[in-house]
Amino acid sequence: MRKITIINGCSDGTHSVFEEALSTEIEKHKTTLSVEIFKLRDMKIGYCTGCWSCWVKTPGLCSLKDDMPQILRSVEASDRTVFLSPVSMGFVTAQTKKICDRLIPLVHPYIEVDGGEFHHVRRYDSYPELGLLLMDPDKDMERFDVIHKVFERLSINLKSSLPLSMMIGETEREAANAVSSF
Known about the structure:
Layout: E1 2-8, H1 16-27, E2 33-39, H2 68-77, E3 80-86, H3 94-102, E4 107-114, E5 117-122, E6 129-135, H4 141-157, E7 164-168, H5 172-181
Parallel strand pairs: 1-2, 1-3, 3-6, 6-7
Antiparallel strand pairs: 4-5
Helix pairs in contact: 1-5
């Protein structure tokens, strides 16, 4: 059974009908998928302070006392991690970006040359594939390309790949099919 972690960065209840419908669609695949969904707006997650405790004082563990450890555990244990976010001010929501920044304990502070670039050394033997589902009513492809490139770089830094990156409409089937077939 594949495990998928969904990081839901919808910042308010605006997309609640979509979110519930997506959960219902994913539930139909429960015999082949184990899905854990984190609604960031319902969680207490602080911003990375850049203290580097997660690398130096408490390797792999952030010094902030919030809900992030459960997300990190889920991401570590998943085969795939999908970021779901509406486009807000030309990028993913602040909640989604905050999680991206807080994934830094998943790698070591040490640097190696990888693909001709400098990157952090992996902390774990395996990392989940990443997915990005953007909800953008304007369907702005230029904006999508910029966000896609940022998440491609995130996947490289997390010793992963980004095989799923798409703009979705307001149809839950489209998103559920993308997640379940990913």
